[in-house]
Amino acid sequence: MSMDRDLSQDLLEQVNQALNLGSALRIQGSNSKAMLGRAVAGEVVDTRGHRGIVRYDPTELVLTARAGTPLREIEAALYEAGQMLPCEPPHLGTEATLGGMVAAGLSGPRRPWAGSVRDYVLGIRMITGHGKLLRFGGEVMKNVAGYDVSRLMAGSFGCLGLLTEVSLKVLPRPRQCLSLRLPMTRHQALAELAEWGQQPLPISAACHHGDALYLRLEGGEGSVQSARQRLGGEELDSRFWSDLREQRLGFFAAPAPLWRVSLPIATGELELPGEQLIDWGGAQRWLTSTAPAALIREQVAQRGGHVTGYAAGDDSSAPLPAALMRYHRTLKQQLDPQGVFNPGRLYPDL
């Protein structure tokens, strides 16, 4: 019996024991995303023992690894082959795992230009709430059998099943990368980004922080240098983007509660109390504010967006529309009928 099978069977036995006892399970890897969603009571299922890259073929741009594999190990293997995870997922901790990356579904500064975590999930192996270890999807884009189930796991926060293995599409690293700092106000930055979004500029990250707009240009040498001459500004250390992704910028050290605001790409300025940082070219705003959660949610909803609170156990999710909640409940009932996996993490009755 292989190590992979042994480890999968250990997790499967733990799930089946919980099903027989009618008890809940709290799935976690390194717990680096614990501040998101509600607190969960239940027996801990620690995926970190179920680790390791199973298959990686750089010529096929596909990597398969067990859910407990640290992201740093995956990124090191990709870097050696001149490749990367295009969605630039935040770790938010030194031991962040692949399973946690998929379960949280969080993407970094490249998200609007390269896609989300969900877009790169090719297939999964997971233990369902029926006590079965199943495979969904495959290792190539053309194999679409069950592909939607694989993608549904991205951003599910472990509420639909226990991931044991994930296959991902990866991409080559850009040939050239250059970061710029352009002094301007937030209002000016939003106007410029709206205009540049209609033009063939090789922008792969855009953030306004303080009194400046920060841009990252990626692509061929000619296109990057041409854009650099057109845009002006001063060159910036590329570590800015990892500091943004990992919330190491001074902005994130503020004592006020932290909120992530998602908005339509062309949304103008938000008149909200507190301090704001613009990311994703305007589609994502970070807000530190002591304003009531209801006020923040109401104003963001009026602009067609939604809000997530970044505080441990915070009940910050806005109620879903009735039709969408029905889909959530139906999906939960199909994959986890006894509600054993992370009950209440996303919503009180799911």
TrEMBL record:
<protein>
    <submittedName>
        <fullName>Glycolate oxidase subunit GlcE</fullName>
        <ecNumber>1.1.99.14</ecNumber>
    </submittedName>
</protein>
<dbReference type="InterPro" id="IPR036318">
    <property type="entry name" value="FAD-bd_PCMH-like_sf"/>
</dbReference>
<feature type="domain" description="FAD-binding PCMH-type">
    <location>
        <begin position="1"/>
        <end position="173"/>
    </location>
</feature>
<dbReference type="Pfam" id="PF01565">
    <property type="entry name" value="FAD_binding_4"/>
</dbReference>
<keyword id="KW-0560">Oxidoreductase</keyword>
<dbReference type="InterPro" id="IPR016169">
    <property type="entry name" value="FAD-bd_PCMH_sub2"/>
</dbReference>
<dbReference type="InterPro" id="IPR016164">
    <property type="entry name" value="FAD-linked_Oxase-like_C"/>
</dbReference>
<dbReference type="InterPro" id="IPR016166">
    <property type="entry name" value="FAD-bd_PCMH"/>
</dbReference>
<dbReference type="InterPro" id="IPR006094">
    <property type="entry name" value="Oxid_FAD_bind_N"/>
</dbReference>
<dbReference type="GO" id="GO:0019154">
    <property type="term" value="F:glycolate dehydrogenase activity"/>
</dbReference>
<keyword id="KW-0274">FAD</keyword>
<keyword id="KW-0285">Flavoprotein</keyword>
